[in-house]
Amino acid sequence: MSAVRSYDDAFLRQLHQSVAPSIVQLAVFNAKSTQIPCHLGTGLVLCVTPNYIGVITSISCDPKDGFRVVARFGDQEDLETEVVRTSSLLSALVVRGCNVQAIPCIPTSFHEGDLPEADVVFCIGCFSIVKEQIMTAGIISYLMHASVCEFEKELRGEQQVSTFVHTCPIGDGLMGAPICSRFGKVFGMNVARTALCLSINFALNNSQLKVELAKLLQNEDYEMSALIEKYDSEKTSASKKRKGRGVSSSQMSRSPVKRKAGGSSSSRRERGVASSQMSSLPAKRKAGGSSSSRAI
């Protein structure tokens, strides 16, 4: 915490307030843990519409792996969230919610250029299951990056990923949280931590984060609005199809009743006549048979 001591409470409060509206807590559940999250993380808001909120994160939440996600903004109730696209490093999520005080973080306003070594950085995110945000401080360390680069290679395999090491403690919940400068500029996003120490953590740097965003969102402007529009269109179309099937099934369920009602009187009369004829025939045969049997 030595890096924080040179800043007063007013500065830290202002920095937190400038970034906090773009932060959302993400709770991830799986089949074995349906009530208590199996892990927590932080998401960065990129787009806000009247009905949806677009979020990116680096936590593991792919529905193909059996994960389900809910979003938590402050003291509000859990909001329905759907993972709509994933890449090797990032996931794009759409949160269904309105009247949420969220402000998008514009990727084009991310820090440009090299990151200064030993510069003070801040990690802002949601630390635990409690719906509160925290801010931890640390420094960028290229020297430490050199000492743990083998771990990074093992972590990412053959994939070439540009990261930097920082010393901000990131316990459970701060994965996916942005790393910011003292001016509120985004330097990168947490993607990994080591078991060596709480203060040895990896973040995608700003340039790599933009590259990954362009791949994930499939556009060079880092715009998430088009993805949300597509999601909304697909949801609307699916809803109309469900309603259409519902109307069709209700008509099918009513149609046999109509046919039964329309043919009931005549069919009953015909069945009545046939049954009376059938009931009289055995009586005649029985009568005829009884006389012959007596004759014998």
UniProtKB/TrEMBL annotation:
SUPFAM superfamilies: Trypsin-like serine proteases. Residues 233-296 are annotated as: Disordered. This is Uncharacterized protein. It comes from Oryza sativa subsp. japonica.
